[in-house]
Amino acid sequence: MCGIVGLLVKKPALKDQLGALMVPMLLGMTERGPDSAGLAVFGDPLDSGHRKLSLYSGLTPEGSHFEWTALVKALNAALPDAQARADATGNHAVLTVAVEPEAVKIWLREQHPKLHILSTGRSIDLYKDIGTPGEVAARYGFENLHGTHLVGHTRMATESAVTPDRAHPFTAGEDFCLVHNGSLSNPYGVRRKLEPLGIHFDTDNDTEAACRFIEWRLRDGDDLPTALQHSFDELDGFYTLLMGTADQLALIRDPFACKPAMVAETDDYVAIASEFRALAHLPGINHANVFEPAPEEMYVWKA
Amino acid sequence: MEGVIEQVPFDLSTQTVRELNQFLHQPADELAGCEVVVTHPNGAHNIAVGLNAPVHVTVQGHAGYYAAGMNQLANVVIEGSAGTGVAENMMSGRVHVKGFASNAAGATAHGGLLVIEGDAGLRCGISLKGGDIVVGGSVGSFSAFMAQAGRMVICGNAGDALGDSLYEAVLYVKGTIKSLGADAQLEPMTSADIETVSALLQSAGLKAEHDPSTFKRIASARTLYHWNADADQDY
Q1: Catalytic: which of A2, A177, A211, A258?
Q2: In this structure, what are the phi and psi dihedrals at residue B161, rounded to the nearest 5 degrees?
Q3: pLDDT: which is higher, A93 or B4
Q4: pLDDT one-digit tens code per residue, B57-82
Q5: Domain A46-122's class?
Q6: Is B115 strand, coil or helix?
Q7: Any idea which of A41-55, B138-152, B219-233 has the lowest mean pLDDT?
Q8: Tell me, what's the ipTM?
Q9: Percent of chain B with pLDDT over 70
């Protein structure tokens, strides 16, 4: 069991409240996922020459005392064009660079192999860690997050260990993330298809296979609906998947609808959660259009 | 159920589901004539489960999983939607969902009437054992799977594999059927069938909207009742 939440605000004035609106949703999914939680938030994109990388130092020996300033200094010495700067809090930092991110990632993996790269892109910031949703939300100040849309998850692990890197959301490529409630029965088959194409996996988690498969389809030229159609054909098992891109949220459920989802839509927002109880405290919920997404259908909302 | 004399409010934003259910589990004579009104249900699970008294319960909002499960005698109205397993294993009484219901609505119900005014999700009436279900909208795939006894009236459409491995339950569908499950077959509507549909629509309060003679009857072809080695697992 796991919990999924998603929120997309339709009015610019609500962008500042995105985190505050979402935290009760995430807390409402605590019973479905008490062991880890995470969140990807999408905001105004950086210009095309810049990228940001969300980094997690909880797996390094220094943990939350990681020397982010020293990292930035060393990175700028090695790659002066990067003009790197870091916005750090404890074990988490958003590193902004002015170069293609691949060179930065190679440097990070060489110099700080225990540092976990959570996400890369122009719009996405990502936070995930072990702990109850309430603890994780407080640790990273989720209530203060701004942006147009977000994808969140509360985890009750079933098929791989409870570790920060196996928490959701998973990311692949740039400005793409995915959360999953369910279990895939063919993640290793998917993985064996992708690894010969040079696609690297960070963990043994089944959700990572779905995430990297869909991102591979998108990178290969599929638009989102085509990529999702391919995932219906390729992914076997139980799943409700919620995905975020720089300007969209997308939801699919397996053909047997084994894992739940509810959507509430008003003039102000689209909110998605595993269960209504996570939506119940949203403003205007009594007048929202509440519905249960159908199995094997694609739901895409544009930011 | 006539003569409601006392209205008892329960506000689930300040009271717990356990308090509500413990109140509802009092001996039947304590509850006689009671109408319990549940406000701010907020999708909570297990609202009004295991009732065993002719009490009225009105849920003013959306209910979570297993609402009115195992119901006996009580009359439960959910004014919003219901989550997975509403009225599962109902024995008697009546459960009325004014919105939509999620998966496995009315699963294994032995008796009573479940009314869903909106759509029902997948596996509605799975393993039905004698209850009646009237759905004002459509039902999802695998509905009435292995349904043994009872009746289902579906005013909208049915998804895939309707009535797969059906025993003696009878299904009536007004709209389209995406596919029938193994051993489910369309049969002619008799005058008795039309009366049955008419009576169930009447009980559900949906009689004015639907002409009973426009429904199709689906029942078991009974070819799975005995093992057929020659079928080679191809049904």
Answers
A1: A2
A2: 55, 40
A3: A93
A4: 999 999 999 999 999 999 999 999 99
A5: alpha beta
A6: strand
A7: B219-233
A8: 0.92
A9: 98
Stretch B3-29: mean pLDDT: 92
* Residues of A with Cβ-Cβ distance to B62 under 8 angstroms: 276, 280, 290
Reply yes or no on whether A258 is catalytic.
no
pLDDT in tens, A127-177: 999 999 999 999 999 999 999 999 999 999 998 999 999 999 999 999 999
Counting every residue, how long is chain A? 303
Say whether A277 and B141 touch across the interface (CB within 8 A).
Answer: no
Nearest to B66 by CA among B53, B48, B42, B78: B48
Which residues of chain B are within 8 Å of residue A292 when distances are taken between CB atoms? 81, 100, 102, 121
- Alpha-carbon gap, residue A22 to A249, rounded angstroms: 15
Name which of B61, B64, B102 is nearest A292 (Cβ-Cβ): B102
Predicted confidence band at A1 (pLDDT cuts at 50, 70, 90)? Answer: confident
Write phi, then psi, for B232 (nearest 5 degrees).
Answer: 55, 40
Nearest to B43 among A280, A291, A294 (CB): A280
Chain A closest CA to B101's CA: distance in Å? 9
Task: List, in sequence order, every beta strand (DSSP E) within chain A.
Answer: 2-9, 36-42, 51-56, 85-89, 92-97, 116-121, 124-130, 149-155, 170-171, 176-184, 237-245, 248-253, 262-265, 269-273, 289-291, 298-302
Strands (E), chain B: 6-11, 34-39, 56-60, 75-78, 94-97, 113-116, 129-135, 149-154, 170-173, 184-187, 216-220
- The token duo for A1 is 């069991």
The pLDDT assigned to B3 comes to 56
Q: Do B80 and A279 touch (CB under 8 A)?
A: no
CA end-to-end distance (rounded Å), chain A: 28
- The domains located in chain B, with CATH, are 6-223 (2.160.20.60)
For A2-41+143-302, CATH number? 3.60.20.10
The answer to whether residues A281 and A261 touch, using CB atoms and an 8 Å cutoff, is: no
Residue B112 near residue B130 (C-beta atoms within 8 A): no
- Write the pLDDT tens digit of every residue in A235-281: 999 999 999 999 999 999 999 999 999 999 999 999 999 999 999 99
Which H/E stretch holds residue A73? helix A68-78
Where exactly are the structural domains of chain A?
Answer: 2-41+143-302, 46-122
DSSP string, A47-66: PTT-EEEEEE-TTSTTGGG-
Q: Tell me the DSSP string of A28-48.
A: HTTTT-BSEEEEEEE-SPPPT
Helix-, strand-, coil-residue percentages of chain A, each rounded to 5: 35, 30, 35
| Nearest CB to B62; choose among A256, A290, A294 | A290
What is the edge-to-edge ordering of all strands in the sheet holding A116-121?
A85-89, A92-97, A51-56, A116-121
Minimal CA–CA distance to A148: which of A34, A51, A54, A9? A9
Which residue is associated with the tokens 């999702």? A228
Q: Which of A31, A181, A254, A276 to mutate to test the interface with B (most CBs of B within 10 A)?
A: A276
pLDDT at A98: 98
User: What pLDDT was estimated at residue B1?
Assistant: 47
